[in-house]
Specification:
By secondary structure, the protein is an alpha+beta fold. About 15% of the residues lie in helices and about 20% in strands. Strands 5, 8, 9, 10, 11, 12, 13, 14, 17, 18, 19 and 20 form a 12-stranded mixed β-sheet that branches. Strands 1-2 form a two-stranded antiparallel ribbon. Strands 3-4 form a two-stranded antiparallel sheet. α2 (about 75-90) runs parallel beside α8. The chain is globular and about 60 Å long. It starts with 9 loop residues before the first strand and ends in a 56-residue tail after the last strand.
Length: about 525
């Protein structure tokens, strides 16, 4: 059984564990009186751990996506996401799983000089990332991206750290992509329309590996195809770095101009980075659309007001959790009103925009009230001081409408939102309670929500879960229908066209191919296949 003891502070494989460390300066509130049917028993949680018991820094197995229940309920999806997050941040062979040999880092976009196409490459990890200096030399991971999807907005913490991003895939994804992109006419991988969703896909990929990559064994084949996006800040700027999962990284460095409206690239530097957010995205049995789950550190930002169920399951009582105005969150200044938050202060300039302004590509420029770069214009910056922190608030708590927006919705929609909020609260409360009870740093991260589909799919054995079109309705989706991450879609989610993941990650009406460029997976079409090792 779970031992409720406090362990001494230690650091193992990049996973900072500090049971005796003081709490973070501010933490989002998780109501203690919420009730729902989504809970996790101590015994079931222990089964997630490779050793069969919960321990600080204990290795968690990947969730079994291959045997995901066809009669699944919403809580099954949330538990799948939670287990995958804990697996991703588990130590393995002296490194955390994310920097271990079962993953590839995906490079930022670059222009191929031969094809003149924008491409990305898969960077294999040798498993030495995340080790402490006392053990061996660091392997510095490449964490280079700054601009958020859609808006190109750049986020900065209240402690003046830029927020850095990494993109990663598991080895199943990398080899599946290679098999699909190099498949000949009439072959299995040349004929399937979507990502792996069942045992036959696994069998076929293993046959492909035996022929093209002899000696390669998938690290967690039951996880199926998975993508991850991570967000990080300089660990030396957070109130207590022992409260965070950390890695060593090489990040871009910048030099500011005289009025701080333009930061130009100025080489790179090595930093210890603290994990602030993760998108956990993967296929499960008969769900080729991917399940999209997202996680954040509890000290990132406060929630706007929301409603949840208290009382009992038989007689629930709706209660409102008010907006938390106090507290030093790393992405919000104390006392800032929710209505005054989420204002974009700067963007990272594309090659074309940079050329138009006569500055280096990748520069960070302050923006005016219309979101246009200020540098080189006579306009004033939206944020006083130019390239400075803005305040961030989670305007859609638990991936659903806040209390004010919800109050204008039909009663049935309100009830669905309150139930979804309550389910996420009770599941997070259980998991965080188990983790903090043994002093595991992962107890400082919460699952904001998840979203998936419920539409007919011809390849799925139970006729469910295809890729949604951009016209997908709420009836087609399940889970948190306004899901986003405050560190990754800080400004994009405010736009009307992007209320949740599937408004950007989906297919057009005329396409039945999951691999269409910038459709379901925005990185897939740009990634260069791996080179087979068989002669």
């Amino acid at each position: 059984m779970l031992k409720k003891k406090v362990l001494a502070a230690l650091c193992l494989g990049g996973l900072a564990l500090g049971a005796t460390a003081p709490p973070a300066a501010a933490q989002m509130i998780i109501p203690s009186d919420a009730v729902s049917d989504c809970t996790l028993s101590e015994d079931d949680f222990e089964d997630w751990f490779a050793g069969g018991s919960v321990a600080a820094g204990g290795a968690v197995d990947a969730a079994d996506s291959l045997t995901f229940p066809n009669d699944s309920d919403i809580c099954d999806f949330y538990k799948w996401g939670a287990q995958m997050f804990l697996w991703l941040t588990s130590p393995r062979d002296g490194a955390i799983e994310l920097t271990g040999p079962g993953f590839f880092n995906v490079s930022p976009e670059y222009l191929d000089p031969i094809t003149r196409r924008t491409v990305r490459r898969l960077i294999p990890s040798d498993g030495s990332g995340g080790l402490t200096l006392a053990l061996r030399n660091q392997k510095f991971e490449e964490i280079e991206e700054l601009a958020q999807a859609g808006s190109s907005g750049v986020l900065m913490s209240q402690q003046n750290s830029l927020v850095y991003y990494g993109v990663h895939v598991n080895d199943f994804y990398g080899y599946f992509l290679t098999a699909q992109k190099t498949a000949g006419p009439g072959s299995y991988f040349g004929s399937i329309p979507d990502f792996a969703i069942g045992p036959n896909d696994v069998d076929q990929l293993n046959r492909y590996l035996a022929a093209s990559f002899p000696g390669v064994t998938l690290s967690s084949e039951d996880a199926l195809t998975m993508e991850f996006k991570t967000s990080w800040v300089d660990a030396d700027t957070v109130p207590n770095k022992d409260d965070y999962v950390t890695i060593q990284a090489t990040v871009p460095k910048f030099s500011a101009n005289s009025d701080n409206t333009l930061w130009e690239p100025d080489g790179t530097e090595n930093k210890t980075l603290a994990l602030t957010g993760v998108h956990v995205v993967g296929t499960v049995l008969d769900h080729p659309e991917f399940v999209w789950a997202t996680f954040e550190h509890i000290s990132n930002a406060p929630d706007n007001s929301y409603v949840y169920n208290a009382g009992t399951l038989e007689t629930p009582i709706q209660r409102t959790q008010p907006y938390q105005t106090d507290g030093d969150f790393i992405l919000r200044a104390p006392g800032v009103a929710a209505a005054d938050a989420n204002q974009e202060c700067m963007i990272q300039l594309s090659a074309k925009k940079a050329a138009d302004l006569g500055v280096p590509a990748g520069s960070i420029a302050a923006v005016d009230g219309q979101g246009k770069p200020v540098y080189g214009t006579s306009n004033s910056p939206r944020c006083s001081g130019g390239v400075v922190p803005s305040s961030t608030v989670r305007d859609s708590p638990w991936g659903s409408a806040n209390a004010g927006d919800m109050s204008r919705m039909p009663t049935a929609d309100q009830q669905a939102i309150v139930l979804n909020n309550s389910r996420l609260i009770t599941l997070n409360r259980d998991i965080l309670g188990f983790l903090t009870g043994v002093g595991d740093v992962r107890g400082n991260y919460i699952q904001n929500g998840g979203v998936w589909t419920n539409i007919d799919s011809p390849r799925a054995t139970n006729g469910l879960a295809p890729i949604p079109f951009k016209t997908a309705t709420a009836d087609d989706l399940r889970g948190s229908l306004k899901l986003y991450n405050t560190t990754m879609e800080t400004y994009t989610y405010m736009d009307d066209f992007a209320p949740n993941c599937f408004d950007c990650h989906s297919l057009g009406k005329s396409s039945a191919n999951s691999f269409v460029p910038f459709g379901l997976s925005h990185i897939y079409s740009e990634i260069i296949p791996l080179s087979p090792t068989a002669q």
